[in-house]
Fold:
Amino acid sequence: MKKKIFFVALILFIVFLNSMILIVSVVILKDKLSTARDKCLAEHYVIASSLIGDMQALEQRGNNAEENIGSLMRLYSRYLQGKGSGLAVAFAGEWIYESPAFAVEENMILPPDTGYSQERLVYMENGSNPILCVYGSFPAPWQDYGLMYIGNLSDTIQSWRHTKNVLFLTGTVVMFIMSFFLFQFLNIIFRPLRQISSTSAKIANGNYGSRIPVHGKDEISSVASNFNLMARQVEMQIQQLEDAAEQKQQFIDNFSHELRIPLTAIYGYAEYIQKAHMSEEERYECTQFIMSECSRLQNMAFQLLDMALLSRDEMKNGDCSLKELFEQSEKSMHMRAAEKRIRLTYALSQAYIVRGNMEQLLILTNNLIDNAIKASRPEEEIRILAYSEEPNIIVEVEDHGIGMETEQVPRIKEAFYRVDKARSRAAGGAGLGLAICEKIIQIHHADMSFISEPGVGTIVKLSFPAS
Structure:
């Protein structure tokens, strides 16, 4: 495309430049011919006036002007000989004197018929040597006489041709200079397009971090900016897809691992019951273990079903009272906490209302309390608080359990991730509780953060938009 624009622009420039040079050349030629015409008219007038005066002087002395015209004209001819001009005198339609520089062309009709008027005729003969002719009749009583002045235009035409050649030569030089600058200008104009093409090729080959440098505020810069924005969005989308694929693969790996452990144990105990001789007490213990592992697999299936349903769910419009939420949570978690001799303390300064779904928020609260119970030691306290932090409503679940390391906090929302794998399996956990909590938080457009320190405890802070 750059070559097409270059050649089209160059051709248009050449046509325009040569047209202008041609117009200027014609104007210069007309100006030079006009100057030569005025000069010939002036000299014709001077010579004719002087010749009439000489002829009058001859007549006064009794001499015949026609017979002495040659001697009178030689003086003027010598004057004009150096200029390349000539003179001729006509009498009654016949030439009676011709200067050496005067040469009649074959197609010249001389002397022209002026009707014995004093008007002067000016015309140009373009033979081998272009000449400018001025002819005029004398006034009475010399009306039979006429003077022809022939001006040589060779120098004028030669000068014009030289000027024309200089103009075309200058135009050629200007054309080459402008071609160079036009090519450089197009290189500058098309550089961003080349960069866009190069960068798009890199992105197509997988280098999604490639960008185009943006300079200025013109249309090309706007295209480059939009291209960079598009590339940034593509990079973000690709990164999100890669992260999602990695999370899915990690989920599958963790899920396979979680299934393999109980299934291996169930198969082992079932094979042991089938092949070994054992007492009823041993058989009962084996079946109890098999039932325990099956129960854990059932809980895992239910939790996975909850996650799948939450992924497709949206928050149902409605107001949820935190006071009612705390009352239902206390009824649900009282026995679970009592088993470990842990105190649950619910506190809220006023009856806060948040926008959300009561059932989902109850699952969220109970999962957090259940995690706190698993992390706490007997005789400890778990506090569930609600307070206002404009413009949001805050719910906190605080325990004084084993806590977490700083590097563990970002990963606890991942499915099947456990801070203490041995303790979690012993407590029957599958590592899906916080993943479900994160889904509920996303549905409610809320935020969940963790503050934890090993040996000190953990605070889970939920921030809800006020109703």
